[in-house]
Fold:
Amino acid sequence: MDQTRRDFLDRLLTTPSPSGFETDVQRHWVEYVSEFADEVRTDEYGNAVARVDGGDDAPALAFTGHADEIGLMVNSVDENGFVHPSRVGGSDRTVTKGQHVDVHTDEGVVPGVVGQTAIHLRDTAEDEIEDVTEQHVDVGADSEAEARDLVDVGDPITFETPVRELAGTRMAARGMDNRVGIWVAAEAARRAAERDADATVYAVSTVQEELGKQGAKMVGFDLPVDAALAVDVTHAVDSPDLNDETNQHGEVDLGAGPVVARGSSNHPEVVRAVREAAEEADLPVQLQASGRSTGTDADAFYTAQGGIPSLNVGIPNRYMHTPAEVVDVEDLDAAADLLAAFAARSAGRDDFAVDV
Structure:
C-alpha cells in the first residue's frame, strides 16, 4: 500500500463515526473519491455515492462499505456527575471497563474513562461484568451540574485508541469495522477507473449498518446497478481463543486474502464471476459458508428493487467489536484489486441472472 492510500486509511480510522454520527468520516471519503469520480452525491442521512462512468451500455456495479462504528452514548447523568452510557450498536461489555473514551459534544471532545473498581477492592472470586448500561463514565466532574455543563444526553462516545503498527503488514485500531470496507470500496473504484474498465462503478459508503443496515436500505431503494458487492470485515479464526479441531467458525486466516461468502444473500453467479476474476488476476481468495445471512449490507441490497444480485466480500479481522481490531493491509489491497478485476471482467455482460 503506497503512502497516499495509507494516509487515506489512517484518516478514516482516526475519525470517530459512531452510528448516527458519521458526517465527519463521510466528508473525508467524499473528498477522496471526488478526485476521480464523475459524480458524487450524498443523501439526507449522509450516505455517499460516487459514480465512475463506463459508457452507455456498460454493466453497472456497486462496491459498498459502511462508514459507521460501534460505540456508546450518554444516556443519563447522576447527582455525583457520573455519566451513564447506553450502547450504539453491538458494543461488547467485556472490553469497555477501564478504557479511555471521548465524549463528542457540540462544543468539542470531552475526555473521560469508563470506571473500573480496583482489583484490590473487589471480590475476584465473584467477579461479574455489568452490562454497559450499568457502567459509568468519569469525565472528572464533581457534581451533576458540572457534568451537564460538559455533556448532553445523546452525545456519542467512542474509545480513545490509536492506530498502531504491528509486525509485518499487520495493524491495529478500533473501527476497522468497517472503515476498511469503505477504503476498499473507494480504492476499488479508483483502480477500476485507472484500468479504464468498461463498467460503470458506484462506490458507496453507507451509514447506520450497525443499527440494522439502515443506510443500505436507503441507498438500495434506487441504486441503478446490476450487482452489489458489500465489503465488510469478517472473523479471522486463526487466533488462540478460536483454535479448535472442529473449525466450527470456518477457515478464514489473517493475511490470506479477501473472503468470498457463499450461500444465503450471496448470488451464485456473482460468486462465480468474482472467483473467476481472482483466478485470472492471480489474486488470493478465501471462501466462507453463509447458510443463513451475512450480517452485512449485502443482506439489504439483495432484496432491494425486487432483488439485486449481491455478494459479501470479507476482510479478515481479529477481535471484532473491540477497541483493538487487527487486520493485514495486504488483504485490503488484494480486495481492492479483486473488485477492480471483477469490474474489468464484467465488461459486455448483460446481467447476473441465474439460468432457471
Observations:
- The first helix runs from residue 3 to 13.
- Helices lie at 3-13, 23-33, 144-150, 176-194, 214-220, 268-280, 298-301, 329-345.
- The chain is about 25% helix and 25% strand.
